[in-house]
Amino acid sequence: MHDLVIENALIFDGTGGPPRHADIAIDHDRVTDVGPGLGVSRERIDAEGLALAPGIIDSHTHFDAQITWDPMVTPSPEHGVTTVLIGNCGFTIAPCKPEHRDVTMRNLVRVEGMSLKAMQQGIDWQFETFADYMALLERRGVGPNVGAFVGHSSIRTYVMGEDAPLRAATATEIDAMRRLVEDAIDAGAVGFATSTSPSHNGADGNPMPSRLADENELRTLVSVLGNRNKGAFMLTKGASTPVPWLETLAADTGRPVIVAALLHNSTDPDKVFEDLDGIEAARSRGNQMWGQVSCCPLSTEFTLRAPYPFEGIAAWKPAMQADSEESYKALLADLSFRDAIRTELTRPAVVRLFNNEWEKLSVIGTVLAKNQGIENCTLAELAQDRHTDPLDFLLDLALEENLDTTFLSILLNSDEDAVARLLTHSCSSIALSDAGAHLTFFCDAGFGLHLLGHWVRDKQIMPMEQAIHRLTGQPAAIYGIRDRGQIKAGAYADLLLFDPDTVGRSPARRTFDLPGGERRLTTDALGVHGVWVNGTRIVGQTDTQNGPTLPGVILRSYDS
Ligand SMILES: [Zn+2]
């Protein structure tokens, strides 16, 4: 007798092939049969009218800190995500010596917009090495399955301490870092992750440590993957590491190279396609490369207390280094500071979040009653009405409201025709939810449901089976995640049961559920009828099952 049979669902098996009406049987943690007439079972679900897919694999999350206090990593599983990869961009919390905990958290405050108070109250620091961290997660249990990258910025801080964000490493230091990467790969890391992006800044306004790595350091650390013949290399790319250079790493190691964050920028509209074409050319030469793209517009809510969109502007740096609120405010009022930003914004940049597009920046929350009338106006409109400069208007308003005015900035990826081309490109991997990070700015944990609802049902940019493949079977193949991402006899029972007519995600809403009552944005799933991880239902009604409350596993071995 089977544990569970789901009957009459339209099954999308994750391979990209056409769907079919069938039943599936689940026993313990696996799918054991697919077809008609599967016999008796302890529990039956009639799924007529619904679609059944493998659970979504979210390959770009930042749950490294959150997972130590919230092993369910909400809200991702509600949105059909059954496997998450953490440690992207190299912003991990392991390995970490006790004396580096403070700077590690302060780095995450700036680079990933995480609350310092929530991290101070929430992170369980009972680890030092990467292997200890994996063991801690395993001991505490996890909701979805978790694969972890070893992060460059963390190993750099571990070896170089306070010099990590300041200088190049010595040969001895590079050697010590190489050994840490080896240890982590041996302990089951899914790969090695880094960032060379100028938008990634950390504590005290310094660059994130990985940005100080020279070519030799990066090449040495990535070479571990080739030597072990294991693991993927992911990076968030800045101008110093162009695609042709990254291809040499793929060629030298024979390992997959995943290039993030390929977001469309309407002020430099061809750039992202040039990167993808470079990746396609690399692929034709036998090198495994993928461009990570997003199906969500990159928009962020922010105040001048943490103005993430501006922090990639070089002329903004003095503001990140201000040692008190008074000196910060004085700087914001300073004409030469403002002029330097204006000048820089008129110059083209390879990678920059905010590109002088004031019509895409609006006021969404004011503090003073007299300013309420300008809510939901764009800075472009406001500046034009008042015959003033938009940057002056924004900074004067924020100063008048003690830095607490809330702005909304639509930064990148908002041109839907261009985004559709990215999503359907043969070398793109759809990810970049950044779930677990930027918690007060945006929440794209429901990116998969957004793809299925907005892009497939409403815009019809690709067939449903293709979209599901890109969320399941494709990432499983890229990272070598074994027996997941497909519905077939023998695969783990990671499943998403949904209604194709209503699937989607709600608009973001505020909640105050972080440690210390700190605020974040979250979204609700639409059209989801059930989610299973390793055969245990974690979303939807459960009748007879008595599975573990945290059914996920820590992934430690991958297909090469
Ligand atoms: Zn990231």
Small molecules in complex: zinc ion
* Number of helices, counting only DSSP H or I runs of 4 residues or more: 17
Structural class based on helices, strands and sheet pairing: alpha/beta
**Termini, distance in Å?**
36 Å
* Secondary structure: helix percent: 25-40%
Low-confidence segments: none
Residue share in β-strands:
15-25%
Secondary structure: number of strands: 23
Radius of gyration equals 23 Å
Mean pLDDT, all residues:
94
User: Tell me about the biggest sheet?
Assistant: 8 strands, mixed
Shape: globular
Write the layout of secondary structure elements.
Blueprint: E1 2-11, E2 20-27, E3 30-35, E4 41-46, E5 51-54, E6 56-58, E7 81-86, H1 101-112, H2 116-122, H3 130-140, E8 145-151, H4 152-160, H5 171-186, E9 191-195, H6 215-228, E10 232-236, H7 243-253, E11 257-260, H8 271-284, E12 289-293, E13 298-302, H9 317-321, H10 325-333, H11 335-346, E14 361-365, H12 379-385, H13 390-400, E15 406-412, H14 416-424, E16 428-430, H15 447-458, H16 464-471, H17 473-479, E17 495-498, E18 504-505, E19 509-511, E20 520-522, E21 525-526, E22 528-533, E23 536-539
Parallel strand pairs: 1-4, 1-5, 6-7, 7-8, 8-9, 9-10, 10-11, 11-12, 12-16
Antiparallel strand pairs: 1-2, 2-3, 5-17, 13-15, 14-15, 17-22, 18-21, 19-20, 22-23
Helix pairs in contact: 4-5, 5-6, 12-13, 15-16
Bound molecules: zinc ion (ZN).
Zinc ion binds near residues 60, 62, 89 and 434.
